[in-house]
Amino acid sequence: MLNSLRAVARFFQNKIGWNLIGLLLSITIIAIAVVVLVRMLRDIEIDEVYAALRATPLRDIAAAALFVAGGYFTLTFYDWFALRTIGHSEIPYRIAALAGFTSYSIGHNIGATVFTGGAVRYRIYSHHGLDAVEVAKICFVAGLTFGAAALFRPTAAL
To answer: From CA 73, how far away is CA 68, in angstroms rounded?
Structure first.
């Protein structure tokens, strides 16, 4: 069984390439997300959306945008921390930021974060010499850190 799996992995690596598989998987995930989004938004009246936006004060929209940007900015540090934890401090922050931002953005918006976020991370980190096991370690450490942060955050109910 193990030899069969290794043969399949060698075939993909030698004939197709893992980067191409990652690209095809990413395109498939994005296509599915677009179809689902179009179906979900089919019944929304655009005039009602514009009316709600016009009724919301500009400072509230700007504050919301600032908090969203700040939230995604902090997500980039989970990957940066995970890279240092597994011993890959040679990978610069800009690569960790790209991987963290895109994997969380796509993973949390599409769903199945473990698969979608992991595929996005693999696509980015494989160009910098990391293999699937190292990317899985990054996903684990980043997920553990994200979970710990969510678990110990102060709540408004207190």
So the answer is: 9
Backbone angles phi, psi at 9, to 5 degrees: -65, -40
Note if the pTM is more than 0.85: no
Q: What φ, ψ does residue 155 adopt, rounded to 5°? A: -110, 155
- pLDDT tens-digit profile of 52-88? 999 999 999 999 999 989 988 888 898 999 999 999 9
Following DSSP, what letter does each residue of 59-121 receive, concatenated?
A: HHHHHHHHHHHHHHHHHHHHHHHHHHHTT-TTS-HHHHHHHHHHHHHHHHHHS-HHHHHHHHH
Residue 1 vs residues 5, 6, 14: alpha-carbon distances, Å: 6, 9, 20
pLDDT tens digits along 23-55: 888 788 889 888 988 999 898 888 998 999 999
